[in-house]
Write a structure and sequence with these properties.
heterodimer, A: mainly alpha, 6 helices, flat, B: alpha/beta
């Protein structure tokens, strides 16, 4: 009971933080934001690992196997494609950005 | 709580903090890429901790662990493959597919919580996991249909649902009843949990099938919020801080974007979800008396106007993406900038098939993000623009939105008609999604160039080059 109360509190506070943080994201980045947020809900994979510890029936084997495939596809694909998109967003002032050495390579191409 | 549990708790908390920071860094294109990586590292840490905890505390069956790891490897390969292959125009479909699998995974985990626990699950688990099953299943089929519609798969696109309201109410009721029965009869949980999942899957179908293709930005956002909520419900069921916080963050993100999109389309969120621009708007579309003559122009004439302008605003719409002409538009922009013309891109919030889609498409064509300007910022600039070049955008430029009684009334529009000259590149004389004539086209300062956007732009580029040379 006690832990549920705490859990619900966490849920509500996290919702508020989410609304606050998301509200500051410019419209330009809404697609990467959505696909990035999309990969975050792949955290369900942690849930899959946790239930796998107690799995002992064929039914749960099937559920775990399928959930692992779907959840990982969600996480990995989501982060990769978001990175691919964000890589394309370039400034018109490459000189400024190029000052950081790690950006040099990108400015080159 | 033993030491390991406490460490695990704080590591999950750390990854939750990294998700928040990752989203926070998305507030600027400069830091967004790093933000995404911070978030990804948070994910790796959380999953690694889950495995450490698993091996430290032991597990019941090696078979389950082998299947778990095999599933993760297969999923990772499938994820990377699809993420690397996808074209930027197809991004909405891919995000929908990722949402489909995420919702599916959430539903499966919740199902597992209910079905395979030792003894009878507590009421709290039944309720939270039950909600996880419901929301996850709705997202699964709903996102799948959305992806099919976005991909333009004929079979899915042409699906019709007569008496959609009846189906929606029926499936919603059946889902709720099964869920209540599940909570009341935990001893027959196998039956009721599967029925709950089944009806929720059905509800996902009848919920998305009637919604039109252009409403997809809203639908994708809503479904994204659903998956987040389903994951958070799972977190409540298994009492895991990482799932609760991450799920809530995604839920908030999806909900915020849904509201923004619905506002940009000038329609209450609920009316979008209830399905269809259909009925009501076609009835009051009688008002559409936009008549007159459209003035046609030639690529050479457009080139002259552009080259001798001081300030040009491009107004890209989804027609640009359909014609795959982003690069041509960017090339034209570069040419004009080379002549000292001030060029900017006016981006309406619903240009494209998901929130912010047009920005990604133009970024891919190497347009610097500073030149992509939001609705609120660009509108005051139109009166000072010598030429506005509208490419494949329609309803979002219709001045009829400013007066009441039309299908687009109240919709926030780009004030293209206030610029000194307007050139519209358009495939044909067809109407926009709202099904009404665009009054902009009949304005005295508007000229039309009818052709495929790509062909038109190429012709204009050729003419501009000739002029400059």
């Amino acid at each position: 009971m006690n832990s549920l109360v705490i859990a619900i509190t966490l849920f509500i506070l996290a919702l508020l933080i989410g609304v606050e943080v998301i509200g500051k994201v410019p419209a330009t980045l809404h697609t990467p934001l959505m696909s990035g947020a999309n990969s975050i809900h792949g955290i369900v994979i942690v849930g899959v690992v946790i239930i796998a510890a107690e799995a002992h029936s064929p039914l749960s084997y099937v559920l775990i196997f399928l959930a692992a495939i779907l959840g990982t596809m969600n996480v990995v694909g989501g982060y990769v494609v978001t990175d691919r998109m964000l890589e394309m967003f370039k400034s018109s002032k490459p000189d400024k950005d190029a000052k950081a050495s790690k950006d040099d390579e990108e400015a080159g191409k | 709580m033993n030491a390991l549990d406490i460490i695990t708790w704080f590591v999950y908390l750390l990854s939750a903090v990294m998700f928040v920071m990752g989203l926070h860094f998305m507030n600027s294109p400069k830091t967004a890429r790093m933000g995404n990586r911070v978030s990804a590292v948070g994910m790796v840490i959380a999953v690694a901790m889950a495995f450490i905890h698993l091996f430290a505390t032991g597990f019941t069956s090696s078979m389950a662990i082998i299947l778990l790891v095999a599933g993760i490897l297969i999923g990772a390969l499938a994820g990377v493959y699809s993420a690397e292959k996808v074209k930027m125009t197809d991004m909405p479909q891919l995000v929908s597919i990722f949402n489909t699998v995420g919702g599916g995974a959430a539903a499966l985990v919740a199902l597992n919580d209910i079905l395979t626990s030792e003894g009878s699950p507590t009421l709290v688990v039944l309720i939270t996991a039950g909600l996880g099953v419901v929301i996850g299943s709705i997202t699964f089929t709903g996102s799948l249909v959305a992806a099919g519609k976005l991909q333009g798969i004929g079979l899915v696109k042409n699906l019709k649902l007569p008496a959609k309201a009846v189906w929606n109410v029926a499936f919603a009721l059946l889902t709720v009843i099964s869920l209540v029965m599940l909570c009341l009869n935990p001893e027959r949980r196998m039956l009721w949990a599967l029925l709950t999942a089944l009806f929720a899957l059905g509800y996902g179908l009848v919920f998305v099938i009637p919604i039109g293709g252009a409403d997809m930005p809203v639908v994708i956002s809503v479904l994204n919020a659903c998956t987040g909520t389903a994951v958070a419900m799972n977190g409540l069921a298994i009492d895991n801080v990482a799932l609760i916080v991450a799920g809530a963050l995604v839920g908030a993100a999806g909900a915020t974007l849904s509201v923004l999109m619905a506002e940009a389309m000038n329609r209450p969120l609920l009316s979008v979800l209830a399905g269809g621009f259909g009925g009501s708007s076609s009835a009051d579309a009688q008002d559409q008396g936009a008549q007159g003559t459209m003035r046609e122009t030639t690529p050479d004439d457009v080139a002259v106007q552009l080259v001798y302008a001081d300030k040009v605003i491009f107004v890209p719409g989804f027609g640009l993406a359909q014609a795959q002409a982003q690069r041509e538009l960017a090339d034209l922009g570069e040419l004009l900038k080379g002549r000292g013309v001030e060029v900017s891109y006016a981006i309406h919030p619903v240009a494209g098939r998901m929130p912010g889609h047009m920005n990604v498409l133009l970024a891919e064509a190497n347009v610097p993000y500073e030149e992509l300007v939001d609705l609120d910022e660009i509108n005051p600039q139109f009166p000072s623009a010598n030429v506005s070049l509208v490419v494949g955008a329609n309803d979002v430029t219709n001045p009829a939105a400013r007066r009441p009684g039309t299908a687009v009334s109240g919709m926030p529009i780009l004030d293209v008609d206030k610029s000194q000259n307007v050139v519209v590149l358009k495939r044909g004389r067809g109407k926009g999604y709202a099904g009404i004539e665009n009054e902009l086209y009949f304005n005295p300062n508007t000229q039309m160039l009818f052709n495929d956007a790509k062909a038109s732009l190429q012709a204009i580029i050729a003419a501009v080059k000739e002029l400059i040379a």
